[in-house]
Amino acid sequence: MRDALPLIWRKIPERYTLLGSHCNNCKTDYFPQRTICPHCRSKGKLVDKQMPREGKVYSFTEVHSGPAGFQHETPYFLAIIELPNKVKVLSQLVDSSKDKVKVGAPVKMVFRRIFADGAEGVIAYGFKFKVVN
Amino acid sequence: MAGIIGYGVFIPRFRIKVEEIARVWGKDAARVSSGLGIKEKAVAAFDEDSATIAVEASRNAIESSGVNPDDIGAVFVGSESKPYAVKPTATIVGDAVGASPVMTAADFEFACKAGTTGIQTCMGMVDSGMIKVGLAVGSDTAQGRPNDALEFSAGSGGAAFLIGNDKPIALIEDTYSFTTDTPDFWRRQHAEFPRHAGRFTAEPAYFRHVLSAAEGLLKKIGKKANDFDHVVFHQPNGKFPQAAAKKLGVDAEKIKTGLLTPMIGNTYSGAAMVGLAAVLDVAKPNDEVLVVSYGSGAGSDAFSIKVTKEIEKKRSKPSVQELVAEKEYIDYALYVKHRQKLKALGD
Ligand SMILES: [Zn+2]
């Protein structure tokens, strides 16, 4: 995680508030942010847009062997969340009991620690999702 | 004076029972539980801290009240369990709720009363015309040293209050503070856990400051404590607020709604504020609320609050009772894992 600081700082709008992009030409939403609309290319007109904070589980997996920095968090759920605007977001699922984690389960965004750059480095915060009743 | 225009709360989902902590240390669970007046406490997960709790509470406040984040000109976060020793939590909250960048911000520390001092600061800034809306948060993931008396009571949670003049849900009629240098509880720089002065924390610390602030306020506004419909005290355990109520002549019934420590533990900077939020969740227009915080070190902020009819439109979602009810019990081993008390584990 060394030298993670520039990346952590750059991703704050995306990770804190689900800030994505919207193309004013074809009306498509994108997350994470794009600099060019893949449909419209040079005709595209991208502006910042907050993504909806509620969605549903599109697919999920239970991680038993986490990568460095996440190895003590296992087992945890990693899910693809589909938002109402059809945008898909990869996210950890937290505060969700095993029997409620299902394809199609309604979820909402929560704010959590993502990782820390060692014991003395910066802390990356951002979105995770939880299953709601 | 400025009023409350929105509020929100967050309580982590995990709970550990006092009985489970007592089992590990070979203590008499029933005696500990009844002595403290605490059944269980809320525990922050490994990826929660006082910043994430502050953000969740603030988002609940903003979404429930409909306040425009651009109108927030100041963010103050009170906590004694900051994720960084140096670097504000308030900037994390400011960015996460969309109040940045045109705002002032700082973290406050005054043991369990830094959040209510944030409310007073916002009141002054709103009344002087410096800002339109201020956000004051009290949030903690309170740490207790293993096998210390505080381990049974130190909970996690927080509350956020939006202070302004536009259609307040509650008017803050007056505030009064009582503060002295009383070292009843402290944590030295680089020390991991706080230390406390045992029984000394009661009479010269909690009761002297809470009662003096309450009596000072009551004298100033010409009221009696029992004139209020609800009374909320800082709640380091379930017993101190009951004793304070008795000393002030407040009917026991009037402190029930705002007394959450028996179910979530002492949320430190969040404690009195979560109690006030629980009262606002059920209060009727024209209800009057007396709130007295307490921070070790030591001081108390007292507030006389009158609920308006706007409350019906802007009660916070989820309610405090909904957050209290949403829980998952963990045992002591998982508690140790989530609170990262296993030093050999490393990063
Ligand atoms: Zn396009």
List the helices and strands and how they pair.
The complex is a heterodimer of chains A (about 130) and B (about 350).
Chain A: H1 5-10, H2 12-17, E1 19-23, E2 29-30, E3 46-50, E4 54-63, E5 76-82, E6 88-93, E7 106-116, E8 123-131
Antiparallel strand pairs in A: 1-2, 1-3, 4-5, 4-7, 5-6, 7-8
Chain B: E1 3-10, E2 14-17, H1 18-25, H2 29-36, E3 40-43, H3 50-65, E4 72-78, H4 90-97, E5 104-108, H5 114-127, E6 133-141, E7 156-164, E8 170-182, E9 185-186, E10 195-196, H6 202-221, E11 230-233, H7 240-248, H8 261-264, H9 271-282, E12 288-292, E13 297-307, H10 320-325, E14 328-329, H11 332-338
Give a written overview of the molecule.
The complex is a heterodimer of chains A (133) and B (347). Chain A has helices spanning 5-10, 12-17; strands spanning 19-23, 29-30, 46-50, 54-63, 76-82, 88-93, 106-116, 123-131. Chain A has 133 residues and is mainly beta. Chain A has two domains: 2-17 and 53-131, OB fold (Dihydrolipoamide Acetyltransferase, E2P) (Beta Barrel); 19-51. In chain A, the strands form two sheets. Chain A has a five-stranded antiparallel β-sheet. Chain A is globular and about 45 Å long. Chain A starts with a helix and ends with a strand. The mean pLDDT of chain A is 93. By secondary structure, chain B is of the alpha/beta class. Chain B has two domains: 3-169 and 315-346, 3-Layer(aba) Sandwich (Peroxisomal Thiolase, Chain A, domain 1); 170-311, Peroxisomal Thiolase, Chain A, domain 1 (3-Layer(aba) Sandwich), CATH 3.40.47.10. Chain B has eleven helices and 14 strands. Chain B has helices at residues 18-25, 29-36, 50-65, 90-97, 114-127, 202-221, 240-248, 261-264, 271-282, 320-325, 332-338, and strands at 3-10, 14-17, 40-43, 72-78, 104-108, 133-141, 156-164, 170-182, 185-186, 195-196, 230-233, 288-292, 297-307, 328-329. Chain B has a nine-stranded mixed β-sheet, sandwiched between helices. In chain B, strand 9 and strand 10 (195-196) form a beta hairpin. In chain B, helix 1 (18-25) packs across helix 2 (29-36). The radius of gyration of chain B is 19 Å and the shape is globular. The chains are: A mainly beta (133), B alpha/beta (347). Chain A binds chain B through residues 12-13, 16-17, 69, 72-73, 94-95, 97, 110-114, 116, 118-119, 123, 125, 128, and chain B through 13, 45-49, 51-52, 55-56, 59, 83-84, 92, 95-96, 98, 328, 337, 345, 347. Zinc ion binds next to loops of chain A. Residues 23, 25-26, 28, 37, 39-40, 44 of chain A line the site of zinc ion.
